[in-house]
Amino acid sequence: TGKSQKVTEMIQVLPTERYNAHLVPEDSCLTCPEPGVYVLCFDNSYSILQSKKVSYKVEVVPTADLQMLSPHSRGDMRLQ
């Protein structure tokens, strides 16, 4: 739509959560219930003295293609 939106107007889809990905890589997926713009937010404020390297992969699969995926490759879990 081209219209910008303020952070305070955005709806949080998942709660903020801390991951110990330095122990085991985090791998999960999210099925988006509504079409729209989704924003990924990485927050390192709990560790201001330690920088982090974040690697991520986002794959957008159209709804019609989801039906061809196996049940093990999709789900309603956390987004990395």
Task: Describe it.
The chain has one domain. 5% of the residues lie in helices and 0% in strands. The two termini are 26 Å apart. The C terminus is likely disordered. InterPro entries: GOLD_dom, GOLD_dom_sf, SEC14/CRAL-TRIO_domain. This is GOLD domain-containing protein.
Quick take:
This protein has 80 residues and is mostly loops. It contains 1 helix and no strands.
Question: Main attributes?
Answer:
80 residues; little secondary structure; extended; disordered C terminus
Fraction in beta strands: under 5%
Tally the helices.
1
Beginning-to-end CA distance, first to last residue: 26 Å
Low-confidence stretches: 70-80
In total, how many domains does the architecture comprise? 1
What is the fold's blueprint, element by element?
Layout lengths: L62 H4 L14
